[in-house]
Structure formats: C-alpha cells, structure tokens
Amino acid sequence: MTTQRVNGAPEPVSARLEDDFGIAIGMVFRAYAKAVEAAVGDIPSGPRGYFVLSAAVQGGAGSQRALAERLGVDRTVMTYLLDDLEREGLVERRPDPADRRNRHLLATEQGVERWRRLHERVSLAERQLLEVLSEDARETFRATLCKLAGHVNAPDQAGGAGDAGAGLGGPGESGRVRRRGRGLSAT
C-alpha cells in the first residue's frame, strides 16, 4: 500500500487508534484501573490489597510466594502489603503444615465482610465500564478474557508466551527444580 506524501511526510492511514489492539487494551485497562482505584481506595494498598484479599477470600491465595508471582508483585512488596492487611484484621498468615517455610494466606471473617462490600463496588464499576456491550457480549468478553489470561499465564507456553504477562500477573509456579543452598527445592 502506498501513501501520498504531504509536505514530505507520509499521509496518515485512515484508522482509529481504538482499532489497534495494544492501544485498545491499554485504554480499557486504564479505565478499569481508575474505576477500581476509586472503588477500593479505602483498603490498604488499594487495588493490590483488594486483589490479594480476593484471592484469600476465594481460597486461591495458596502460599505467599505463589500469590506474589501470580499477581506480579515483588515478594518484598507482598510482605509489606500482607503486613498492612493483617494489621487491619483482614487476613492472617499460617504456616503450611507440609512445609513450615511457606505461609498460607487466609481471609478472616472481618476480611470476608470487607471483601463483600468492596466486591459490590468493583462489580458496579465493571458493569459501568462494560455497559456499552449487550449482556451476551459482556459474558462472551469475560469468558474470552479469562481464557486469554489463563493462556498468557500458563507456565509452559512455547515461545515464552507464559512470560508475556509477567508484569501483569506473571506465571504461576513453574515446577522447575533449582538449587537452594546445599539441597534442591521445587519452585
């Protein structure tokens, strides 16, 4: 395709920025992040705190380390974030009976109640963000997005696709074995 030149510069191709996948997904993400920030701003660490609390309430937190990897949060930052949530009485950390070096994150009763209130606000923000879509389109969009998220975060993606989401949530436990001190441990 050739473009005509105007004053030595290529003539712009007729397209909307919203039609570019990367730009569109960035716009949607920024709108979502802004809406969630407003909805959960009163919880320690805002959206990060909310997502950690969500994982604890829904039983998907697992170990502190695995959750940090899934959410793309540095482990030291996760420690401070959990300290804040624990101080608020929303979560508690318990030693893993199978491996006392690991700590599992559990929501407290107060944490579950707080999450329910926050979840209502986040759900409202999501509905407002997606209101331009029909109900069927919203469900299809959600299902497709969740499938894509599972794909980009799968630890064994060929071609490194599993690493593509590292900053957005990162891959989960990889099952690799690496040296730690004198022994071996699964990561």
Write a concise synopsis of the structure shown.
By secondary structure, the protein is of the alpha+beta class. It has helices at residues 21-40, 46-57, 64-71, 75-87, 109-129, 135-152; strands at residues 5-6, 9-10, 91-96, 99-107, 177-180, 183-186. This is MarR family transcriptional regulator.
Secondary structure elements and their pairing?
Blueprint: E1 5-6, E2 9-10, H1 21-40, H2 46-57, H3 64-71, H4 75-87, E3 91-96, E4 99-107, H5 109-129, H6 135-152, E5 177-180, E6 183-186
Antiparallel strand pairs: 1-2, 3-4, 5-6
Helix pairs in contact: 1-5, 2-5
User: C-alpha Rg, in Å?
Assistant: 21 Å
Broad CATH class of the domain at 17-138 = Mainly Alpha
**Helix count, per DSSP?**
6
CATH architecture of the domain at 17-138: Orthogonal Bundle
Protein name: MarR family transcriptional regulator
Key words describing this protein structure:
187 residues; Arc Repressor Mutant, subunit A; two-stranded antiparallel ribbon; alpha+beta; 6 helices
